[in-house]
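Lab notebook page, bench 4
Experiment: in silico fold of construct C2
Operator: M.H.
Input chain length: 429 residues
Purpose: comparison with the prior construct
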Amino acid sequence: MKGVFKLNQHGTNLKKEVIAGLTSFFSIVYIIAVNAKILQDAGIPLEAGIIATVLSSLIGCLLVAFIANVPLIIVPGMGINALFTYTVVGSLGLNYKEALAAVLVSGILFIIVAFTKLSIILTRAIPNSLKESISVGIGLFIAFIGLQKSGIITGSSTNFVALGHLSSPIVLASIINLVITLFLFLKKVPGNFLISIILGTIVSYFFGIVHFSAMDSGFISFKDYKNVFLSADFGKLTTIPFWTAAFSLVLVLVFENIGLLHSQVNGMLQAPDKNGKSFKAISISTIVCGLFGTSPSVSTVETAAGITAGGRTGLTSVVTGLFILLSLFFMPLIKLVPNTAIAPILIIIGGLMLTNVVNIDFTDFTEAFPAFLVIIMIPLTYSIVDGIAFGFIAYPLVKLFTNRQHQLSLSIFIISILFLANFLLNAIG
């Protein structure tokens, strides 16, 4: 281990790396239940979603460990899984097998970006205000989904949405669990989300939402997973919705990972020379996700927990990945986790992503208005793609209207035209 991961050169040792890996595991293990629940809304059976999440997370952590030798957590990301389920499947009309094919194509495009100078070109071409607004809009979307799953927000025939029935057991359990989750998070309790899921499930039991008597006694069944693994369907490869899905996935993957790696590898680890290798490893993991049957992976914000605990090399990622694999032994318990225990985490993660709004220059209306459109239209249209499209179409318009066309690049024009063409084609169709 010392030789492979160069522990001495990185000022660390085996004990520190293992502890950091365990810390990373407890900070991210909640994703197994949360991601599987979101994938279930796309039509992927819950148990198959759990297996896909675990296996893709293991491979993602191993890839970044041996390619870049950094202590990153590479698992299916929050936000991108919402894009996969509620936009690609829900809005664009692809089934989950066709959506997995779009993930594979997006992975190929992502690899092209990561292994060429396109990543630098795109980073410079897209305005910071639009990059930041995508994260904020997705955060609001995730929080909105959490509020729906909790029953706190419900559908309304007159106002579209309304406050749910506060006397409902589901709403009461969700509110109690939100308070518990918020307390643990703000107190920075190690493994706070995992603990909140356990306590939230127990609370839900007392409200009659969870029935432990219905818990499976078996270990793991790959019966459903056989229909998900390598199930990508390219039947709609020549359609506009398919390429809209693939393009949207790439857009979010590239900019989200660029931002995260800048913070983690350049900032916390002070290792800018490893940024490119990390980016390449994550791009390869997207292909793995498409094959294994889940939404794409990203370097998660929880990576900070492992780095703070002393993780400096890929050994931390290896330990994290192996413990994620061992979590399959607890599948019967994971399957019991109700929406009332998951929803509070979605709401808090949404709140965390909202903090990016401070990086948008609201003093310049030509920057603020397109960003505002992205932020508000993602949750209101229930589509990340449509929300992004409004902002990208508006950006060159406001610049042209104020005679500031010199601030526009050819790339932003091309992207805007593609989004506009997609709207027009959908309207005609």
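Observations: The first strand starts at residue 74 and ends at 76. The mean pLDDT is 88.
Next step: discuss at group meeting.
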